[in-house]
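User: Predict the structure for this protein chain, please.
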Amino acid sequence: MAEALATTTPRPDAPRGRQQGRGGRRDDRRNQAPDVPKEFEEVVINIDRVARVVSGGRRFRFKALVVVGNRKNKVGIGVAKGADVQSAIAKATDVAKKHLVTFPLTKETIPHETEVKLSGARVLIKPAAPGTGIIAGGVVRAVVSTTGIRNLVSKSLGSTNKVNIAYATVNALGGLVPRDKWITSDRTAAKKAESTPVVAESADEKPAKAVAKKPAAKKPAAKKETK
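Assistant: Here is the predicted structure, written as structure tokens:
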């Protein structure tokens, strides 16, 4: 009995944490490096259970729809299937990161209005004034929330298929044209250049003014003398 007590009694020179039995684990948790913030934000839009008929019966799997964005100007959509929910989400996230789309931003909104039709779904997105917020619902809001857009007005028309709406929204964002590449902006800049007056190169020189010439006076015709 004395030998058993001697083996179970902690030594006095042993560290305090080891006497408690959990001190080592706590020290390991404290010494862990701080978590690095993720570059992309992942949002699971929808999870469905799908079935496949085989010779032995039905084979059930899960299909996940995931959107990935960096809260700036990149966004991607991924759809994948897996034996369980976690594997389906992981596969869909990898697919979304491989198909990222870059779009232009103008003062936390999109530069112009656009509408995209994909299969039976139609998505219309329009720029909005500061303070408007994201006026969208369902899938469109989930996609836009992972980007740097803060003001937007949208409308989903046609089909209610979430996969088609998500892909149509991403295609609409990817098809935006920056303001500096608009054809109308080039024409406006050319008109402004034509309307601006010519400035003299130095302070002493003054731009020459066009002087209108007066038409030359006609001489009266000489009268013939009659005898």
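The chain has a mean pLDDT of 79.
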